[in-house]
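Researcher: We plan to redesign the surface later, but first we want a full-length starting point. Tokens attached.
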């Protein structure tokens, strides 16, 4: 069965700029009104400045005015499929713990909610 989000994430994975790790990641983020924002990882010679696909997708969506998301698909060539890093979990958590993340690897797919990936998250309610 075709999945538009998986196809979009696979397509943008091809654009990953990952000359150091050679680990190419694509992310497709769907908004609650059906828009899809995509991004890939962008590495840097100053390694710590690397931007993950997930965070880049969130930034693209927010810049376009979208803040409510219903599903994210992350693709890589890993097995087991890549789980979002800690920084990306925190950034995704800003927009809701119910968001479902599906990670598609070379052999299988795994899925979690953001809250499962980041229990006891620090959030806006703690800044009140
Ligand atoms: N990376 C992502 O883009 N998303 C993930 O979920 C895991 C890691 C990137 C960061 C870096 O460019 C490369 O994968 C290896 O860590």
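Model: Full-length starting sequence:
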């Amino acid at each position: 069965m075709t999945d538009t989000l998986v196809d979009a994430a696979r397509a943008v994975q091809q654009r990953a700029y990952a000359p150091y790790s050679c680990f190419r990641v694509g992310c497709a983020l769907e908004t609650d009104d059906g828009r899809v924002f995509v991004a890939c990882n962008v590495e840097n010679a100053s390694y710590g400045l690397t931007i993950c696909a997930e965070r880049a997708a969130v930034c693209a969506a927010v810049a376009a005015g979208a803040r409510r998301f219903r599903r994210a698909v992350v693709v890589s060539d890993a097995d087991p499929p890549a789980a979002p890093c800690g920084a990306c979990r925190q950034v995704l958590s800003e927009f809701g713990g119910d968001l479902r993340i599906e990670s598609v690897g070379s052999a299988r797919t795994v899925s979690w909610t953001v809250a499962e990936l980041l229990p006891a998250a620090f959030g806006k309610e703690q800044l009140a």
